Amino acid sequence: MSPAAIMLSMTVNGEPVQVAAPPHWTLLEVLRYRLDLIGSKQGCDKGDCGACTVQIDGVPQLACLTLAIHAEGRAVTTVEGLGLLAGGVHPLQDAFDRHTAAQCGFCTPGILLSAEALLRKRGREVSRAEVCEALAGNLCRCTGYTKIIDAVVDASRVMAGANTQEAGRGE
Amino acid sequence: MLRLPQFEVVAPESVADVVTALQRPGARVIAGGTDILPNLKHHLGTPQHPAELPPVLVSLSRVTALRGVALDEAAGVLRIGAGVTLSQLSEHPEVQRRFPSLSQSAGAVASPPIRNMGTIGGNVNLDTRCRYVNQTHFWREALGGGCLKSEGNVCHVVPGGRNCVAAMSSDNVPVLISLDATIVQAGPEGVRELPIEEFYKADGLAHTNAKPGEVTTELRVPLPKGPRRSHYIKWSVRKSIDFPLVSVALRFDLGEDEATVAAVKVVVGVLGSKPRTLSKLDDVVGKKFGDPAVARMVSDAAYAQCKPLENVPYEAAYRRDMIRVYTRRAIEALAASAE
Ligand SMILES: Cc1cc2nc3c(=O)[nH]c(=O)nc-3n(C[C@H](O)[C@H](O)[C@H](O)COP(=O)(O)OP(=O)(O)OC[C@H]3O[C@@H](n4cnc5c(N)ncnc54)[C@H](O)[C@@H]3O)c2cc1C
Ligand code: SF4
Ligand code: FES
Ligand code: FES
C-alpha cells in the first residue's frame, strides 16, 4: 500500500497554492507535473546540472533534490515568476535576449534564478568572477558561458543605473 | 528522469521527537537531502542493508534548535548545529576568522545551490562513495549485478575482497578531524559527545560509529590557543560540483614567535572509508614554519602513508602523486603568505 498523499500549502511565484502529491515526490515533480510550471527543467535529476534551480525564500536551490514537503509554507520562485519580480520583463531576461545568451535554452531558467539571487544580494554592478562563482552549479552545454556572463554583468549595470536614476528622482 | 522509491515523511519539531520517530523500523534521517535523495534515486538503501530502502524519512527541516553557530568562550569551543547549511558555515565571520580551513572546506563542497541546501550534519554522515556503486540501478545491473554495497556480493575495487573500501568523500570531515572537533549524538540512550576522529570506521558498508536511532545534533570545534596556520586542499576533476579526488587538511600550531611549529596535524581523505591522520610528523615540531624542509617532510610523509584505491575516478597511482604535490605546494604557499 502506498503512503497517503499529502496536502501542501506554499506560495509559488507570489500566488498561494494548495496541491496534493505523494510524499516521495520532489518539488520539481510537483512544479512540472501538478502545477504545469515546466520552465524548471528536469536534466540530470540528481544535482549535477542545475537546470532545475528555483529559489526557495529567495535562495537558489535544486528542485530535483528538494522533497516537495520541504517547500511547505515557503515561497518558491520559478522562471515563470522572474518577470513578476521586476513587474514585467526582468532586466536579466532582456540582457539574455540582447546578448543571445540562450541557445537551446535548457539551462537558461536555472541560470536566470542563480543570477537573479546574485544581483539582488550584491545590489550593484557585479564582476565576471562573481558571476562565474554564482553560476558554478549551472552547466550549459551550448554557449561556452561567455555570452551568459556578458549578459549577467550587463543586466547588473542596467539595474545599478536604474537604482541611481531612482535615487536621483527621490532627491 | 529518476523516480524516488515510495516512502513516508515525518517532520518533527524537536530533537526528542526526531529520536522517537527514528525508532520506527528502517527510519532514516533526511536533512538537506543532497546525498540521501540521489542515493535513493539510484535505489541505494541504508548503509547497513544496501538493498533495503527506507519506508520512512525523518526530516530535520522543522528542528530549528539545530540551526545555530555559537561561540562558547567559556567552554573554549565553537558550536555548530547539525542543521547549519554549508553556505552559512563557509560564510560565517567567526568560522572565517578562527577556522579558515573549515570555511574553505565548507565552501568547496559541490556547487552554490547544493551548499544552500546541504547541512554540516549531513556532510559528516555522508555515505561513502565508489565509482561502482554511485550509479543507476541499470548501470550496476550491466556490471553483473552490483557489489557488496548494493545488490551484489563481490567487490570490484579489491577483487576477491570481503570488505567494502568505498571512499569517505566529505570535504569537511578531514578538516574537522584536523581541528580535534567533537561530534554530539542524541539517541534513545541519551546524548554523548565523542572525538569526530573516533566516529569513522574502515568499513564502507557502515562507516560510522553512530548507534541505531542516533541523530547528530552538534559539532564542537576547540578554539585555537595560539597562532595557527590551517588550510584545506581539494583536487577534483572540475573546480565545482565534483567530489574530491584528493583531499588534505593541514593544521600547524605555532609558538608565540608565530614562526616555530609547536604542533602539527594532517588528515587525508578519499582513501578508504576512514580518513587517515598522518603519523611520524614529530620531526617537524621545533622547525621554523618557513623552512622548506617542513613542506618536504610533510608531503613525503603523506605520500608514504597514503595509498589511494581505484574506488573513485582517476588512477590510484596518479592520485597518490597528487597528494604529495598538492600538499607540498599548499604548505609552501601558506608559509609564503605568512611572511
Ligand atoms: C552533485 C553533487 C556534488 C556533491 N559534491 C560534494 C563534494 O564535493 N563534497 C562533499 O563533501 N559532498 C558533496 N556532495 C554531497 C552532499 O551535497 C553534501 O555532503 C551535503 O553536506 C550533505 O548534507 P545534506 O544535509 O544534504 O545530507 P542528507 O542527504 O540529508 O543526508 C546525508 C546522510 O546523512 C544522514 N544525516 C543527515 N543529517 C543527519 C544528522 N543530523 N544526524 C544523523 N544523520 C544525518 C542521512 O540519513 C544520510 O544518510 C555532493 C552532492 C551532489 C548531489
Ligand atoms: S569498494 Fe567494492 S564493495 Fe565497496 S562500493 Fe566499491 S565495488 Fe562495491
Ligand atoms: S535536474 Fe536538478 S541538478 Fe540536474
Ligand atoms: S543554452 Fe543550451 S544548455 Fe545552455
From TrEMBL, chain A:
<dbReference type="InterPro" id="IPR051452">
    <property type="entry name" value="Diverse_Oxidoreductases"/>
</dbReference>
<dbReference type="InterPro" id="IPR002888">
    <property type="entry name" value="2Fe-2S-bd"/>
</dbReference>
<dbReference type="Pfam" id="PF01799">
    <property type="entry name" value="Fer2_2"/>
</dbReference>
<dbReference type="Pfam" id="PF00111">
    <property type="entry name" value="Fer2"/>
</dbReference>
<keyword id="KW-0479">Metal-binding</keyword>
<dbReference type="InterPro" id="IPR006058">
    <property type="entry name" value="2Fe2S_fd_BS"/>
</dbReference>
<dbReference type="InterPro" id="IPR036010">
    <property type="entry name" value="2Fe-2S_ferredoxin-like_sf"/>
</dbReference>
<keyword id="KW-0560">Oxidoreductase</keyword>
<feature type="domain" description="2Fe-2S ferredoxin-type">
    <location>
        <begin position="6"/>
        <end position="82"/>
    </location>
</feature>
<dbReference type="InterPro" id="IPR012675">
    <property type="entry name" value="Beta-grasp_dom_sf"/>
</dbReference>
<keyword id="KW-0411">Iron-sulfur</keyword>
<protein>
    <submittedName>
        <fullName>(2Fe-2S)-binding protein</fullName>
    </submittedName>
</protein>
<dbReference type="InterPro" id="IPR001041">
    <property type="entry name" value="2Fe-2S_ferredoxin-type"/>
</dbReference>
<keyword id="KW-0408">Iron</keyword>
<dbReference type="InterPro" id="IPR036884">
    <property type="entry name" value="2Fe-2S-bd_dom_sf"/>
</dbReference>
<keyword id="KW-0001">2Fe-2S</keyword>
Automatic annotation (TrEMBL), chain B:
<keyword id="KW-0560">Oxidoreductase</keyword>
<dbReference type="Pfam" id="PF03450">
    <property type="entry name" value="CO_deh_flav_C"/>
</dbReference>
<dbReference type="InterPro" id="IPR005107">
    <property type="entry name" value="CO_DH_flav_C"/>
</dbReference>
<dbReference type="InterPro" id="IPR016167">
    <property type="entry name" value="FAD-bd_PCMH_sub1"/>
</dbReference>
<dbReference type="InterPro" id="IPR016166">
    <property type="entry name" value="FAD-bd_PCMH"/>
</dbReference>
<keyword id="KW-0274">FAD</keyword>
<protein>
    <submittedName>
        <fullName>FAD binding domain-containing protein</fullName>
    </submittedName>
</protein>
<keyword id="KW-0285">Flavoprotein</keyword>
<dbReference type="InterPro" id="IPR036683">
    <property type="entry name" value="CO_DH_flav_C_dom_sf"/>
</dbReference>
<dbReference type="Pfam" id="PF00941">
    <property type="entry name" value="FAD_binding_5"/>
</dbReference>
<dbReference type="InterPro" id="IPR016169">
    <property type="entry name" value="FAD-bd_PCMH_sub2"/>
</dbReference>
<feature type="domain" description="FAD-binding PCMH-type">
    <location>
        <begin position="2"/>
        <end position="226"/>
    </location>
</feature>
<dbReference type="InterPro" id="IPR002346">
    <property type="entry name" value="Mopterin_DH_FAD-bd"/>
</dbReference>
<dbReference type="InterPro" id="IPR036318">
    <property type="entry name" value="FAD-bd_PCMH-like_sf"/>
</dbReference>
<dbReference type="InterPro" id="IPR051312">
    <property type="entry name" value="Diverse_Substr_Oxidored"/>
</dbReference>
